[in-house]
Structures are given as C-alpha cells and as structure tokens.
Amino acid sequence: MSESLRIGIAGLGTVGVGVLKLLQRNSGELAETGMREIKVCAVCARDRGKNRDVDISGYEWFDDPIDLARHEGIDVLVELIGGEEGPAKDSVVASLKSAKHVVTANKALLAHHASELSSLAEANGVALNFEAAVAGGIPIVKAMRESLIGNHISRVYGILNGTCNYILTRMQQEGRAFADILQEAQDAGYAEADPTFDIGGHDTAHKLSLLTTLAFGTQTSFESIYLEGIESISLADIEAADDLGYRIKLLGVALETESGIEQRVHPTMVEKHSAIAEVDGVSNCVAVDGDFVGDVMLIGMGAGSGPTASSVVGDIVDIARGNILPPLARPAKTLRPYERARMRAHAGGYYVRLSVVDRPGAFAAIATRMAEQEISLKSIVQRPPHDQLGGMATNKPTKKPMPVVMITHETTEAAIQQAFSLIEEDGHVLEKPQMIRIEKL
Amino acid sequence: MSESLRIGIAGLGTVGVGVLKLLQRNSGELAETGMREIKVCAVCARDRGKNRDVDISGYEWFDDPIDLARHEGIDVLVELIGGEEGPAKDSVVASLKSAKHVVTANKALLAHHASELSSLAEANGVALNFEAAVAGGIPIVKAMRESLIGNHISRVYGILNGTCNYILTRMQQEGRAFADILQEAQDAGYAEADPTFDIGGHDTAHKLSLLTTLAFGTQTSFESIYLEGIESISLADIEAADDLGYRIKLLGVALETESGIEQRVHPTMVEKHSAIAEVDGVSNCVAVDGDFVGDVMLIGMGAGSGPTASSVVGDIVDIARGNILPPLARPAKTLRPYERARMRAHAGGYYVRLSVVDRPGAFAAIATRMAEQEISLKSIVQRPPHDQLGGMATNKPTKKPMPVVMITHETTEAAIQQAFSLIEEDGHVLEKPQMIRIEKL
C-alpha cells in the first residue's frame, strides 16, 4: 500500500473547503497514520471562479461530477453535493460502478437509497463510507459498525439536529419565546431562511433512519418514522419542564418492541440531571443501549465545516489503510425487511399541559377522564401564568384559562390520545392539549 | 475470508467468562457481521474445575498460557490474565512471535510495554488490539486510532476509574465522608480490599498513558505522570465545590504545552452544568479536543464483565474482517520520544481551602500572600462548618478554625505552591492547605 490514494472531491461548499484545509494542513501526519500519501487530485463544483479561502489551483477541475466520478485518475470520490437525487446520486452510482470508493456526508441520499447503494458498493468491492452523514463529527457510524458490533442493540437515540437544540437551549436559558429565538438564529445563520426541514424534524429523521439500520440490521425505512417537530413547544412547556426536573430536547429514537422497530422523532422530556440534558446549543449526541456494553453515549459537534471534515477524512483514512467494510455493517442482502411497530402502543410516561377553563369542577372532570383510561398521575402542577400572579393572590377565579401540567406514569399512546379527545369533547379546555413524551434514559 | 477465525482465551475470570457468553449468545449475528465464523477453540486458566457459570467443555484446555499462545490451532490469543509482567507478558510475546493476533484488556502490560509489543506485532504482521484496556466498554481506542485520526489533538482527558467516581458521587449525593463510602464500596465489592491502586490514581494513570500515546504520537511514559489520588478529598471540599458551582472528579488529563506533553491524574473541579459533571457512579468518560472535530466526549461503563467483553469482541471482529492496524495508530518506530512538560508551570484556575486561625488580620495576611504571587481571586467563601452556625450568628470569633474557600483566576502551579508555603510559615493556618485544580472544559 505504498502508492498514494487519489481523491476527487465533488462539491466545494463549507464542508468541501473544510476537507481540503484538513488534508492540506495535516498531510504529513496523515501519510504516517494512513500508511500512504492521501492526495487530492481533482475537484468539481458549480462555480470555478468563486473565492473559497483555500487554494484549488493544484487540482484538476471538473464541471460535471459524473465525469469526475468516472475519472481514471482518482481512487475515491468524496461526494459533498447533497440532495437525495440528481447529481449527488448520479455521481455516487457512477463512482461505485467504476469500482471507485465513495465517501459521502449526504444523509438524504442514504436515508432513501442506503440498501441499493450498499449493494452496489459490495458488488464492486469498494467502500461507501458515511460517518459525516450522521451527527457530523461524532464517530457513531464506526462505533456501531465496528466497536459495538458484538452487542444486540435494543435502542438508539440522540439529539441529531443542532438548530433545534440551539433554539430549545436558548428558550430555556433566556426564558424567551420560540419565534424570537428562531428569528435570531436565522439572522445569525444558525437556521435556514426556510427552517421547516430542521425544526419539523425531517433532518433528524434522515439521520435516525441510518442509525436504525446500523442498530437493528433492518432495511432503511425513512417513510415509517413518526415525525413531530418543535414548533409547538412554548415557553410555558420549557418552564413547566424545568419546575418538574426535566429539559425538552428534540430526540430521534429507534427501539425494538414486540411488534417491530419503533422509529420516532419528537420533542422529548429528559431528566435535568443527566448528561443528555447538558448537551446544549448546537451540540449533538447519540446513545446506544447494548446487551453487553450497557449504555454508551457520544457527544460532539453535529455539523459545521471542521467536525464534518474530521469525519470525512476518518473515512478516507479507513480506505487508505485498506479497511473496506459492508457499508451497513453486514452484507446488504442480509438486511431484514423493516417492520414498523404500532406507535399507538408506545408505552412511557407523558407530560401533559392543558389550558383549563377556570370554573369549579373542570379539573375534577379532566382527572376523571384520565382515570377512565387508567392513566395514573405522577405529579400535577396547577399554576397561573406569570402575568396572572396578582389574580392568584386574591384567590378569585380569573378570566384567563388556567394552565394545568401533569406528568403521567407509564401508559400507552392510545390511552393518552383517547383521554385527550374526551377532554376536548367535554369542553373544559380552551386549546388543543399539549403532550410531550418522556424518555427514560 | 470464509475460514473461521480460531480464538484461544487465556484467563477465565469475570471478563473471560463475559467474552465466552457474548460469543456463545450472539454467534449467529457475528458470523454475518464479522464475515466469517468466530470460533473459540481453546481456553486456559489456573483452575480447570472452578464453577464458571459458562460451559467450557467444548474447548481444548491448556494449563500454560504460553503453550496456548503457541498452539497451532488458534489464530488469535485473547489475553485476560492481567499484570504487567509474568504469564500475561510472556504469552502475549509468544503469540506475537508466532504471528498470531493478540486482543488484550491489560492496561498495566501496555502502559509499560506498548512500544515494544507494538513493534513486535507490526514485525509479524498481526494485530495487537486493546480497546478493553482503556475505559472498558467505551470505544475510545478505535475513535482515536481511526475516526479522529485526521485531527491534531491538543488534549485528552477523562474519568477513567469507576471506583473513584462511585465514591465521589456518593459523597456528593449523600453528604457522607470518604472513609464511610469506601468501606461500603469494599463491602459491596465495588472497591478492592486494598484500594490504593484505584483511589491513589494508578489505574487512571495506566489508561492515561495509552491515551497520551494515541493522542500525541509519543512513546508511552507511565513514569512521567503526575499522580494525586482522592484520599484527601473531604466532605467540606465536596460541599464547597457544590456551593461554588462545581463537582469534583478524579481526572486523567494529557495536554500539549509549549514545553512538552503534560500528563496528570488528580482530583479536579469541573463545572456542575456540564455533561462530565453528570457522569456519575461507576461510569467513565473520555473527551478529546481536536483541531477540526472540536470537543468529542464518549460516556459509558468503564469496567465490568459485559462492557469489557463488548470491547474485546469488537477487537476480535476487526481481526475477522481483516482490519489490521499498527496498534498505536502509527508505526511504532515513528513514535516520538515523550517530552515531559514542566508541571510547575501548569496554568489554570485553582480551588483552595484553608483552615484559618480565627483572629483579626489572619485573612488579610493570607490575601496579601496570594497577591504577592500575583494570584487574583474569582470568589471567596468564608463560612463556618455546619456545626458552628451558632457561633456565626452572634458574630463572635469562634475557637475552632474558620474554613476559607477561594477560587483563583488562571495562575501557575509554581505561584500557588509558593503562596502556600509562605502562608504556612506565617502561622495563620491550622492544616496543610487543600488545593484542587480546575479544568476548563
């Protein structure tokens, strides 16, 4: 393995530039640890003339990523174009078909085509490495594909989207509303102009679908993921969670149940005194529960030029060293079909916030509805919003709705939903009930 | 690679039994992910007849681990005997010299002989994998050797001993003294009858020396580690730390300085609101600061049968898959000599607890000594111990010493030590000053 490994990079955005900088800066070290020279030979992007803060004059230029993918002068295509179809997919397919290795940071592509592309890589005896596609700089793909491979995994979960975590953290720390913080995050470039993809949970779901496949050996099934974003989280929820000893995080969770694999993305209450509750701002984390290893958690930066480049280069070094594995940890043809668990049967504790009409008997009626569904309550907090404390002091019923917050013991999704619909029918609440699932760590 | 990989296990204590259980229970899965059958063929221990809660009748028995190491019927020796010399070392050397791979959980052996054994493994073209030797089930060796290899590492640190962390956590949570908790931990089997090796920091130092080599590409230098255990930590320290917003953890820390690599093991103050502060009980963690990836932290179980077996089997699967790397991430002959940093020059903040004679001017004299060394103070807490609160309320000087706790801004070890010796000479303190280093996360 003394010949140099020749790299072609398609896509020179922030990650592509990060990869070039890393390879230029640490090249001496990498020749030693990678056991041979890692040499960027060619690059490809939409605009050759763009100022990129990195010298690309020494690399052969391609206008078309598919031409680059088929170029005889490279051994590895690094795909950093993005998108689930189009030039990203076409160039990856062309590269694998030409028996060239692929390293990619493209979660959308893999969430939709992981099995197909893995089969293609295996058939051509090449690598399809994607550490950077899941949680940026956190080395979770390798941990699951290699380190923890002896374990039977029962659950994998994590904070997989930095934008959501940044918004939730700032709401909590500064006591400010969702819309305010989102606006600031957009102004500062931490959130996209159209933030739906992040705050609606789609980005988290892309990553979760890959973690599910690595954890359970099932085919990727992005469409089966239950999806709920953070748009509905109000400051009242954040404050009530704090009072009750919790933090709210957007989690992606996949776990084994009797009826199949449950995959869900939703705001989640986690205990305040836990490592995951301290994963703040744009940081990400992934936790794995294995039968022998127990619980393992990895924390780090989930996005950004540097962390993503770190993962891309780790994947390249694997190829330089000759560590070529089936992309999804086992031969793609041995992946089992994904069987979706019945989400309505999901069991766990729930946080419930109701906007109750402030009149005698309202709360009793609500409590009765919960009891009918055999939902038992762990704690109840009934307190006026901050701006009504004056009214509270006089003990007179106020005109505004009274927020009531409850934490339930373990119950099922079906029971909660049934109780909600009866409570709404009874007319004792003024808004749709808010419900946040509690995840046991 | 369709032939089965033949394993010989030397040492059938709690870890050896865990490895056998894992290989027996998850063997079907492992044949798929490991790409060939992993087959235990032979075992070796001191007492063949011992009841082990696992069936070993199907394996060839060896009385002598060196005979097992040289046995033609195995491809991999799993060394779980322990100890830095003796049969552990002899069998590992014999195995490597017979061109058989080695997987070991033996931190003492590697802390003292990593370079020599790695050279031997490389010369014979075989693996020497030791994931289980550092932080049990946490996949930090692979993360550093492979995933993060593109980074220039500036610091690695962690909670590397479960016994110490268990004692410190219970002191904090239950407000009880060190000796009490240690006794209970010994009774429960969490601490050895002679706990010196754990609570004195030696075990942490063994693991740290390997992390240092992986992080900085230097030869292992266990002897150079500055070592301070947790014996001196009193409940007063734990409580003062809590008041000031910190937790006390025994950390191993290795970092790059201008004068070389600094390696130290000592009780450390970490901010209460951080993930590392929430690493409680017998859990371990390791954090790495890299120039591209930023800060990455891995948390999990640092010891025990299951977690250690998980790492051992991960190492075996690597061999089954043909991923054979230089044990220390780069060829052993390219490791640089270890250059020790001048510890006295260590810069950082400090927690200081003094037992001050309760008379006018004592505190002023102490503050002057600190100022002379250009140590500036971030916070000062002067409060009577819990049993003297009555004295405080009357504002009269008490007869007992007054504890004074200070947090300094960044200063040097030399300045602190100089200030302490002058304060002691002045006669204003009744005990040796307590000092705990603060680690910036």
Question: What is the strand and helix layout of this fold?
Answer:
2 copies of one chain form a homodimer.
Chain A: E1 5-10, H1 14-25, H2 27-33, E2 38-44, E3 60-62, H3 65-70, E4 76-79, H4 86-97, E5 101-104, H5 107-123, E6 128-129, H6 140-147, E7 153-159, H7 162-174, H8 178-187, H9 196-199, H10 202-216, E8 226-227, H11 235-244, E9 246-257, E10 260-271, E11 283-290, E12 294-301, H12 305-320, E13 347-348, E14 350-356, H13 362-372, E15 377-382, H14 389-393, E16 402-408, E17 411-412, H15 413-426, E18 434-438
Parallel strand pairs in A: 1-2, 1-4, 2-3, 4-5, 5-6, 8-10, 10-18
Antiparallel strand pairs in A: 7-9, 7-11, 9-10, 11-12, 13-17, 14-16, 14-18, 15-16
Helix pairs in contact in A: 1-12, 4-5, 5-10, 7-8, 13-15
Question: Could you please describe the fold and organization of this structure?
Answer:
The structure is a homodimer of 441-residue chains. With 441 residues, chain A is of the alpha/beta class. Chain A folds into three domains: 5-133, NAD(P)-binding Rossmann-like Domain (Rossmann fold, 3-Layer(aba) Sandwich), CATH 3.40.50.720; 140-301, 2-Layer Sandwich (Dihydrodipicolinate Reductase, domain 2); 346-438, ACT domain (Alpha-Beta Plaits, 2-Layer Sandwich), CATH 3.30.70. Helix content of chain A is 36%, strand content 24%. Chain A has 15 helices and 18 strands. In chain A, the strands form three sheets. In chain A, strands 7, 8, 9, 10, 11, 12, 14, 15, 16 and 18 form a ten-stranded mixed sheet that branches. Chain A is elongated and about 80 Å long. Chain A starts with a strand and ends with a strand. Residues 388-394 of chain A have low confidence and may be disordered. The interface between A and B is large, with 63 and 63 residues. Strand 12 of chain A pairs antiparallel with strand 12 of chain B, so a sheet runs across the interface.
